[in-house]
């Protein structure tokens, strides 16, 4: 896979993504396209519609045209790359596909989206069966929806839409928000170690269901400690820090320290080195909030965090 796959999947169901419409889903449901897990398969498992597939599968076309599915991005943003996965579809995959995208504000219906101005971000490409197909996207435009087209019909297991989150923070004027939330535009810019799972999991939406949905490092065998740096959604004043070690029963850090900086300024303490408990959501009020743009979380000596939430107000 290419570097863009390190960016969050903007279409992921657990991030609020959804398949809002499709031309056909006779054999397998469209909603499978944005499931977070890898596609599964069990041979000779038949239902009323034939072999059961963990993906989206349409009927065999007997008329001109092609099939399509519209995906609402749970995290609107700039798309940097796509992965079209035809896992387990071997004799019934589409030979070609393309992807379009659009930006529509509010909460548009499928009818509204059909009339939207769509931009092609991936021209028609060749596909193989039972394979992941990564494609880089060169566009700086913000999008809220993508449309996957397959020619002429067949099955696709997953669509991954990797990119950079670009939210509308004007909704929070005068209100508090999680300045470290991926959904609000925060991003992990640096990390000491991501052996078991990606650091952006720590700022992902929702609660971690298991260890793999948080950030976890390898076991350290030296005198150092692990850390990550978060560029906040916007310059703000942090008043409450939530440090969640849920699901980390034997590999939670012993302690944590939070430091902040404004722009390229010096780091200074927001939360001094503080003890943590395993499998526990912790909440700490921060004394004397001041404007910061970045936060560094040091964990001692290693381990994992399910989530980091930094609640405050825009500066």
TrEMBL record:
MF (Gene Ontology): allantoicase activity
Stored SUPFAM superfamilies: Galactose-binding domain-like (SSF49785)
Xref: Gene3D superfamilies: Galactose-binding domain-like
Enzyme class: hydrolase
Keyword Membrane: no
Keyword Hydrolase: yes
Keywords from the named record: Hydrolase, Purine metabolism
Cross-referenced Pfam families: Allantoicase
Catalytic function, reaction form: allantoate + H2O = (S)-ureidoglycolate + urea
Pathway: Nitrogen metabolism; (S)-allantoin degradation; (S)-ureidoglycolate from allantoate (aminidohydrolase route): step 1/1
Residue span(s) of domain Allantoicase: 16-165, 185-314
Listed EC numbers: 3.5.3.4
NCBIfam families for this protein: allantoicase
UniProt family annotation: Belongs to the allantoicase family.
This protein's name: Probable allantoicase
Organism, scientific name: Nonomuraea typhae
Upper classification of the organism: Bacteria, Bacillati, Actinomycetota, Actinomycetes, Streptosporangiales
The gene coding this protein: alc
């Amino acid at each position: 896979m290419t570097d863009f796959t390190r960016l969050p999947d903007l279409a992921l169901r657990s991030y609020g993504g959804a398949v809002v419409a499709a031309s056909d889903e006779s054999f397998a449901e469209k909603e499978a396209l944005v499931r977070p897990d890898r596609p599964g398969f069990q041979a000779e498992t038949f239902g009323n519609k034939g072999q059961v597939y963990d993906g989206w599968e349409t009927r065999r076309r007997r008329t001109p045209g092609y099939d399509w599915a519209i995906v609402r991005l749970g995290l609107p943003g700039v798309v940097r790359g796509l992965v079209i996965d035809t896992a387990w579809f071997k004799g019934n995959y589409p030979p070609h596909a393309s992807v379009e995208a659009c930006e529509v504000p509010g909460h548009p219906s499928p009818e509204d989206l059909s009339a939207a101005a769509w931009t092609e971000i991936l021209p028609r490409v060749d596909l193989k069966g039972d394979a992941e197909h990564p494609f880089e996207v060169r566009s700086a435009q913000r999008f809220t929806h993508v449309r996957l087209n397959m020619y002429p019909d067949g099955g696709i297991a997953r669509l991954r839409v990797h990119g950079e989150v670009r939210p509308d923070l004007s909704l929070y004027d005068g209100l508090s928000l999680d300045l470290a939330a991926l959904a609000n535009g925060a991003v992990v810019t640096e990390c000491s170690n991501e052996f078991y799972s990606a650091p952006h999991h720590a700022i992902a939406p929702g609660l971690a269901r298991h260890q793999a949905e948080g950030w976890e490092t390898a076991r350290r065998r030296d005198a150092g400690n692990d850390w990550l740096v978060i560029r906040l959604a916007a310059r703000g004043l942090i008043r409450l820090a939530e440090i969640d070690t849920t699901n980390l029963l034997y590999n939670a850090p012993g302690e944590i320290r939070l430091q902040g900086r404004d722009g390229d300024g010096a780091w200074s303490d927001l939360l001094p080195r503080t003890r943590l408990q395993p499998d526990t959501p912790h909440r700490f009020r921060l004394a004397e909030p001041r404007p910061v743009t970045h936060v560094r979380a040091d964990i001692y000596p290693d381990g994992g965090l399910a989530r980091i939430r930094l609640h405050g107000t825009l500066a």
